[in-house]
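Anyone able to model this chain together with LBFN2T5F?
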Amino acid sequence: MSTRIAFLKGHGTENDFVIVPDPENAVDLSPAAVAALCDRRAGIGGDGVLHVVRSAAHPEAAHLAAEAEWFMDYRNGDGSVAEMCGNGVRVFARYLQHAGHVTEGELAVATRGGVKTVRLAKDGDVTVGMGRAALPEGDVTVSVGERSWPARNVNMGNPHAVAFVDDLAHAGDLLSPPPCEPAAAYPDGVNVEFVVDRGPGHVAMRVHERGSGETRSCGTGACAVAVAAARRDGADPAVTGTPATYTVDVPGGTLVITERPDGEIEMTGPAVIVAEGEIDPEWLDAAVRRRS
Ligand SMILES: N[C@@H](CCC[C@H](N)C(=O)O)C(=O)O
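re: yes, here you go
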């Protein structure tokens, strides 16, 4: 009988993940295996997988091993690879704390989007240094049915289109990716955020995530929204010299985002481990075969 694979389940503002601790990178996490694990009816269920690997043991992160012991090998629920996951990196850090690999304080985590610094307390919310946003030039349009909106192209390591709308219901059922034009602006696909104002420095959003569909939250998306809102509100910290803070309500909770005058963005929000167990290798083999 093959070895059972450990897993945990966790979430950050209800963006939920199957966590697979695999320090030596020994588990074959094919796209079909990831999709099987994330299946909400036939698998464990999740928006994505947090594969926890020592940087030194992963070909994509070995060059970062001196800076960050651990690599967040993030996968979307459909099995595709993404550069970064803002809610995921908080949950990843919470798992390292839960497993006794780290204690409170600052922790560097390697991601495909670079090394991120996480501040962990004993419990409570987790803060992540998300780096700087890039704002590619050019007009982008997002549409849903007959409606369309101008959108801001924001890259947080991964691509986002942020559209300010009058009513979040106008995003519809979000069962399929909302078209973004021009397609050339997003050669690798895009995460789309729909945003309404709630008050000064306070917005609410829904998101359709590349590779996962509509989720209850997206951390990189909330950062992209805060950056787009600050530019729209004339509160660009690089211009005003003052940090801009936005409270971003998502269907699964609330994130607080601050952009500093040097462009560095910090995100604070919850990170929760809810369960742990073992994956039956025979079930996983069969599920992978069915998907291949
Ligand atoms: N939910 C994540 C983002 C996950 C990756 C995204 N779907 C992509 O493909 O870029 C977050 O919290 O940032």
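Helices lie at 31-38, 86-98, 219-232, 237-240, 281-291.
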